[in-house]
Design goal:
The protein has 121 residues and is mainly alpha-helical. Helix content is 55%, strand content 3%. The protein has one domain. It starts with a strand and ends with a helix. This is HEAT repeat domain-containing protein.
C-alpha cells in the first residue's frame, strides 16, 4: 500500500516532497508549530490520522484545539471518534472542554453515553 500525502491546510492529496501546495499555494516547509500541525490534522480525511490527532490533543492538553474538537464532535456520528474526543476533553479538563462534553452527551448516542456513564460512575 502506497503512502498518501495530504496538504495540512487544504487536505488535498499531494505527491511526496512538495514545498508549495499546488492547490492552496501554502508553503509546506516546516514553519508550523507541532501543536498547530496536530490541530490541522484534526480535519484529516483519514479517520486513523484524526484519531491519533485527537489523542495527542488530550495528551498535550492543547487548549487552542477546543474549537476544532467542538466542530469535529458536532460533525461526527462515529462512536469511537466521539469517545476519543471525550477522552481528550477530559484530559484538558477546562470549563470549555466540559461544555463540549455536554454537547456530545446531548447527541444521544447510546454507545457514547453508556461509555461516559460507565467512566463517571
Amino acid at each position: 500500500m502506497a503512502i498518501k500525502y495530504f496538504c495540512p491546510f487544504c487536505k488535498a492529496e499531494l505527491p511526496e516532497d512538495l514545498e508549495i501546495c499546488p492547490f492552496c499555494k501554502t508553503d509546506l516547509r516546516d514553519n508550523v508549530s507541532y501543536d498547530d500541525k496536530i490541530i490541522l490534522s484534526l480535519d484529516h480525511p483519514i479517520l486513523d490520522v484524526r484519531m491519533l490527532s485527537i489523542k495527542l490533543v488530550g495528551e498535550k492538553c492543547i487548549k487552542k484545539a477546543l474549537p476544532k474538537l467542538s466542530d469535529l464532535a458536532n460533525k461526527s456520528s462515529d462512536p469511537l471518534e466521539l469517545i476519543a474526543i471525550y477522552k481528550s476533553l477530559k484530559q484538558i479538563g477546562s470549563s470549555e472542554a466540559n461544555k463540549i462534553i455536554e454537547k456530545i452527551r446531548q447527541k444521544n448516542n447510546k454507545i457514547v453515553n453508556n461509555y461516559i456513564d460507565e467512566i463517571t460512575s
